Amino acid sequence: MSKTVELFGGAITADYPNTFIDVSDLRQVPDHQEVYIDANGLTSIIVDILERQPSEMCSDDEEVAINHLKDITNDHDLMHTKIWTAGAAQFSKIPNTSPVLSLFATEPVPSLQNSRHQKYTSILLVLLRLEEKQTDIVITVNVPHEPGSWESGTIDPENGRLGSLLEAASAYQEKILASFEIKDWNLFVN
Prior knowledge:
- Pfam families: Mog1.
- By secondary structure, the protein is an alpha+beta fold.
- It has one domain: 3-Layer(aba) Sandwich (Protein Transport Mog1p, Chain A), CATH 3.40.1000.10.
- 16% of the residues lie in helices and 36% in strands.
- The protein has 2 helices and 10 strands; from the N terminus they run E-E-E-E-E-H-E-E-E-E-H-E.
- The strands form 2 sheets. Strands 3-4-5-9-8-7-6 form a 7-stranded antiparallel β-sheet. Strands 1-2-10 form a 3-stranded antiparallel β-sheet.
- A hairpin with a 4-residue loop joins strand 1 and strand 2 (12-17).
- The radius of gyration is 16 Å and the shape is globular.
């Protein structure tokens, strides 16, 4: 079951699972960010509205997505973060003129040999680049994996085994891609 949430005062809407609650009801959240967390778990969905990274700083939009990931993980050399997949994505309700990229990473890199006792976070990142608004919108679904919360052998991203927590998060991300809509473009300052 899902519900439509109003982000940034209703300027953006998206469908989130019913169990997700607005973190700003619990603590202060920066104005450029919306944070929701699963009341029944540790998974969170974060939407950041950021100044668009200049094209001359990066060779392509995928590099921009990776730079945003580096900022999120605070791992600027990607020494402890593994990017498993990266590629184009699409929002159903946003014009196709804006580049959209998606990537899946883990931080730190899980050891699959003794994975059941390891702590790491899976990150599903979507980057929407709004050139005309000089804005990058970064949406992350963050999935902490605590020791003992999953069975050894059920997770092997290299071979497509994501485990139940990440499979659920992937479904959340797909629902967001299908429902994310900008209702008020005046939210963005040129």
